[in-house]
Amino acid sequence: MEYGARYNTKWLNNTTYVSPDVPVNFTSALCTPYIKAAILMMVSYDDEMPGANSEVARYAFNIALQPKKLIEIDGGHFGIVYYPSPLFDMASSAQIQFYQEYLIN
């Protein structure tokens, strides 16, 4: 909240989740094998965010098609957003490199 709640950031924490009546409960990992874009996943070793699960994130990564890159991070779910910090620098540098390699060309 420290970063999102700052004045004039226009940050909103809104989400819509629809749970249709289907025989199998939805998980976003069901969609992963169908993603055609390059995937960068930054997964915490131990995600403390309710509803987030590092093992499920790694499973989704494993079933994703190439090109893909996994970066495992310390700092929990929001560790990479704390600026300035070495973790922020590492994460932002990795993101820039990934974007340059897969999205700009």
Task: Briefly say what this structure is.
By secondary structure, the protein is of the alpha+beta class.
Please give a structural write-up:
Strand 1 (39-44), helix 1 (54-63) and strand 2 form a beta-alpha-beta unit. The protein has helices at 54-63, 86-104, and strands at 39-44, 68-73. The termini are far apart. With 105 residues, it is of the alpha+beta class. The protein has a two-stranded parallel sheet.
Task: Draw up the topology in text.
Layout lengths: L38 E6 L9 H10 L4 E6 L12 H19 L1
Parallel strand pairs: 1-2
Average pLDDT, rounded to a whole number, is 85
What Rg do the Cα atoms give?
16 Å
Strand order of the largest sheet: 1-2
Global morphology: globular
Q: How far apart are the first and last residues' alpha carbons, in Å?
A: 35 Å
List key phrases describing it.
single chain, 105 residues, alpha+beta, two-stranded parallel sheet, 2 helices
